[in-house]
Structures are given as structure tokens and as C-alpha cells.
Amino acid sequence: MERNKQAYLETIDNYAQIIAELPQFLDNADDTIHEIASKIDISFSALSNKKHGRRDWKYEEVNKLMELLGNEKQKEVAKNYILIVNDILPIIQENGIRFSFIFEKAGMTVGNYQVRSKSISAWDVSEVRRIIDALKF
Description:
- This protein is an all-alpha fold.
- It is about 70% helix and about 0% strand.
- The chain has helices at about 5-30, 35-40, 45-50, 60-70, 70-95, 100-105, 110-115, 125-135.
- α1 runs antiparallel to α5 (about 70-95), α1 packs antiparallel against α8 (about 125-135) and α4 packs antiparallel against α5.
- The two termini are about 15 Å apart.
- GO terms for molecular function: DNA binding.
């Protein structure tokens, strides 16, 4: 994926839409929710909780679900989203911006970044969008 702010924002918005539609994906699937849980390697109760909004979706789970249930565009969006998240730190470093400045501009703290940098799954889609929106590239 080419580094382009507008394309990044569109991908993030499309990814957010995929997450919003995951309960419908699960309802419309040919497999039962038990079978889907087994195929994406999580428990039935975890999948049920995520489907009903009681737990957040992890990137890895969304990616597995798109591989299983999504069309080609949705699969591409899910893969590109992780590329975008992984590109945040290099963009900040290349532009010589202080972390505290960009995260404050995005309504976050550097502590938020330090916690989230340990796992891509910890990134909330709205946080990723706010950070990319705040960056200049």
C-alpha cells in the first residue's frame, strides 16, 4: 500500500465499517457460530461476547474472519489496516515530530502509545484514525 494520507484514512474508515458489520457477517455465515469460533481459534463464548459488543475485536480475529467470510476487498482492507498501524511510528520518526505533540494533537497521551505499542490488537480504530489525521505526510 502506497503511503498516502487520504488512502490511509479511507482504509481506516472501511476497516471500522467491517468491524461494525461483523455481527451481520456471523449471522449470515453458512457455518454455525461454534464452527466459526473453532476455525478462527477462539472460544464460542469469546466470539459471542465480541459479536454482541461485550468485548473488542482484535485485529488478528478480524483478519481471520475476513479470510473466512469476507470478499477480496474486505480481505485487502483488513491486511492494509495493519500496515497502516505499523507505519505510524516510522511516519512520526521521519518527520521529526515529538511523540507527545502528535499524541496530544490526537487527544491521547504518550502513555497511551507506550501501552499500545506492545500489541497491535490494543489499538482502537478511532485512535488510529485520530493519529493518522493529525500527522502530516
